[in-house]
Amino acid sequence: MGKPTVLVTGGGAGIGEGIAQVLAQRGWHVLVNDIDAPAAARVAQAVGGTALPGDIRTDPGALISSAVAVSGALHALVNNAGIIRRSALADTSEADLDLVYEVNLKGMVRLAQAALPHLQLTGGAVVNISSIAADNPQPGAGFYSMSKAGVTAFTRHAAQEWGPLGVRVNAVAPGLIRTAMAEAVYAIPELHEKRRLMMPLRRIGTPIELGKVVAFLLSDDASYVSGQVIAVDGGFSQTLISHLPHPPTPTP
Ligand SMILES: NC(=O)c1ccc[n+]([C@@H]2O[C@H](COP(=O)([O-])OP(=O)(O)OC[C@H]3O[C@@H](n4cnc5c(N)ncnc54)[C@H](O)[C@@H]3O)[C@@H](O)[C@H]2O)c1
Known about the structure:
With 252 residues, this protein is an alpha/beta fold. The protein is built from 8 helices and 7 strands, in the order E-H-E-H-E-H-E-H-E-H-E-H-H-H-E. 43% of the residues lie in helices and 12% in strands. Helix 1 runs parallel beside helix 2 (37-47), helix 3 packs parallel to helix 4 and helix 4 runs parallel beside helix 5. Residues 9-10, 12-16, 33-36, 39, 55-57, 80-83, 103, 129, 131, 174, 176-177, 179-182 line the site of nicotinamide-adenine-dinucleotide.
């Protein structure tokens, strides 16, 4: 039997590139989608996969058909492509609301709908990339957190309806990962250091660390896991009480 095939959206950079690298190492044939065609081609070549450039909003059916045409079957979809448009909520424009909704949520849903008949044939799986901002809304991030909360709901909903069809659906919620999306922050050494010290693991995460969790969720090791959102955040989302002022306490 040939390699199983996975389509990774937004695979030309950042977290998507890390996911593509890990999946290729684990024996997947990776179809690298990105709106940035040269980026998709670069990563596809680096991981021995196939580039499928394109905007996920444009024609999800055609993208899935191209994916299936490459190797005859589709075993997994990683809905990773996502964007952020920064603005205060009161000032978020209708254009930015529409754009972030269309890429981060509608684009994922439509692509998964188009992939479903093919994933049914292979007993395949979907992994959606959400964010810890889905549960901890990020001030100044426009519609971003709301779109990611939608990704969580989509994941849980699809897992219920598609489980009986033999398709598992899960999500990964990254915390602070150093990619172009957040590079403006990490380029400032003091901000990088302050953020690092707020992480229980005392460092910012890497795209490869995201890729390893995606690989687990797509593997047979996760054969009874569906409808779950796994935070990959170095423990950060469990630190709420640490922000309270308190008398001196023992430090570990
Ligand atoms: N970096 C973080 O700290 C972080 C944290 C939480 C969640 N995330 C999520 O992880 C995912 C990847 O983020 P990243 O940090 O790697 O971002 P990134 O900007 O570094 O990379 C995103 C990639 O997606 C591509 N893309 C954008 N719009 C597209 C479209 N319409 N169609 C196809 N491709 C498109 C871009 O060209 C780019 O290559 C996103 O869903 C993001 O919301 C990132």
